[in-house]
Amino acid sequence: MIAILGTGKMGEALLSGLVRAGLPPSEIMTTARREDRAESLRKTYGVRVVSNAEAAKAADTVILAVKPQDMASLLAEIAPYVPADRLVISVAAGITTAFVESRLGEGVPVVRVMSNTPVLVDEAMSVISPGAHAEERHLERTEALLKPVGKVLRIPESQQDAATALSGSGPAYFFYLVEAMVDAGILLGMPRAAALDMVTQSIVGAAIMLRDSGEHPVILREAVTSPGGTTIAAIAELERHKVRAAFLDAIEAARDRSRQLASG
To answer: What is this structure's pTM?
Structure first.
């Protein structure tokens, strides 16, 4: 039995992915603060919606998907019901395994996960890190839950804040880029729908080339960049406006914010 405690955007994304992957709804429990939200989850996914305490008692795997600022109160609520043989998976940004372990019973295995919203289309990037008591079997169990909805990568926990900034927030950067490129198309006289189609397909195609070719992104970019051509003119403008430096600063700021969330 799997319990998802907190079914906001990421919690529901994981829930929908598990259901699409073939996990029977009868093997999933969720929790929700509001009754209207609970009723929506029951109707949409056919899962049981219970209290946090009931979920912690009954499940053998507990997924903590509440907001980082709500994690301490949730752990205080469920701690009496989480024995040492229970696998606890935390998907809250910035929350360390040590934070979770210190508020649960001695020896509870905790795995920290940072996933992202493409879990909704089974293309998530999930990075996982073991806590002090998590063993290989706990990592394998976590991977088994996440692999049907995307790619899973093991990293040291010291890199989790960077992963949050890079892949956790990563889809938003692409949406931001698409928005800017579509606006540029409109500026050039292109209908919005046509501009969106062209930009979206260009990004999808480029992403698949990058994933499947095994080539470094510099090689792929250079293949499009002819001497004296249109692409190099555009890239020169991006460099003049320090777009590369802006991305470095932006992702570093996201990393720093993840650390702030961890410290409360």
So the answer is: 0.88
How far apart are alpha carbons 82 and 258 in whole angstroms?
27
Q: Which of 58, 80, 83 is nearest to 5 (CA)?
A: 58
Indicate if the alpha-carbon torsion angle 20, 21, 27, 28 is positive or negative: negative
d(CA 116, CA 104): 26
Total structural domains within the chain: 2
Domain containing 213 equals 170-263
Positions of the chain with pLDDT lower than 50, given as ranges: none
Q: Specify the 3-state DSSP secondary structure of 189.
A: coil
Same domain, 185 and 60: no
- Residue 94 sits in a domain whose CATH number is 3.40.50.720
Helix 192-213 with 217-224: angle, nearest 10 deg: 130
d(CA 56, CA 27): 14
Note whether residue 165 is domain-resident.
no
